[in-house]
Design goal:
alpha+beta, 4-stranded mixed beta sheet, 3-stranded antiparallel beta sheet, 472 residues, 45% helix, single chain
Amino acid sequence: MSHPLWPSLLRWLHAHRMDTTPHALLVQPKQHPCHAGYGLFATATIPPNTPLFTVPASALISIRTLAPHYPKTIPNLSAVQLISLHLSLHRPLASDVSNDPLFGPYISIMPRDFDDHPFTWFLKQRTSQSSLDNIQERILQILPAYILRDLSKMADRFYLDRNRVLLYLVGTPSIHDFFPVFAPEAGAQDNFLWAWLCVNTRCIYHRFRPSRSDPDNLILCPVLDFANHTPIPPFTAPLSSQAEIWDAAPVSRLGDSFTLMSPATLTVSKDSELHLRYGAHPNRVLYVEYGFVNSFTFEDILNGTKHGEVDVQAEMERLIADKLELGDWLREKLEEEGYWGDWTMQSSPYPAHPSYRLITALRLCYMFDPSMTTIPPDAEQLVEEWRKTTLGLREDISPENEYSWRAALLGICEALSSDARQAIAKLSSGDFRPAESVSSVDALKNNAHILWEEQLHVAIAVAKCIENGVVF
């Protein structure tokens, strides 16, 4: 079954001069056979590398299509802030359609809520805005520490954007008065949170600024919204815009159109689902940012056929903090050299391995006796020897150093495995049986379960490599 608002969206796109004829629009949304949402499916047999559709610039929600409709400010609102503001002012109420005269038919097909997104639970718990369902609260409590850390960082981003928008509204009373949705009694935070998550979960890169890395290079694109994520090829991909090809800001006032291409190496059969890869993200990023995870088996992780990744920041910070004065000094040196943080272990490419940043940090830590807590007189000289490995002047420091850091990493793997097994056992216990009124609890539990299984399997795979003498 197609989306009930698909015909009105097509009429609106046609009014924006999009070619919506069957030979130019080769996809349509359908109810997904495996879950409650929709997917993007082929309406015909599609050869490799074929344009699936092209959306005109005027139908893309972007900083360029919205800026003319809002009073200017210094500094300017970012793309995320401006788009979030616009969506929050035109959020559809209940089962109604959006009242936005610009993008109403498109906004109307966006998700009506993000009640099952972990960031929604996290923010409600953090602000005590409203009570969580008991199962959601318990799942939050049992999530890995690095997930809660990343949710906290995401909350910082959210409040930065929301506060900037509120400051803009204070200086633009015409908007604030016309749209009372931002009044506290109207649930302003809920509306802005919904809008912000629409942007966070659905935006895609599209070039507007001279620099490729500018955060304003993003759009919300109708039709593309229905495409689900896959980590495994084949997947669809955007056609490079003229601005991207010329590595410059687009010449036209609203920017370039957006074209989605079919998989480059595969003929797509009629009624087959077409996927988009949201990015080469590990599960912890997918869960925090998008609210879902990729599934896998233990064999996938052990053989490196799927990417599993575990963040070991907390374990490394504890290891270094236990060294007291020496630990503070080690942190300072790692920060100076650019090797503090972003410490992970991965299952692919095969064999499972610690990241180069993790190996480098461990090598420095184990330049010193594990029981040492004060800074020795020859500390700077030892750092010079360590620095030679970071500059590629030597493979390693010494056999003793290699043995020590590998043994420490094995201990980290064992601790990670133990934590994961305990969490998995709790998730499988009666404490996580849902109340009948709670919907989609199986999916909520399953995502948490997969995150802990990923930690367990990656830790086991790396430990096996250490025990087997694999050189990283």
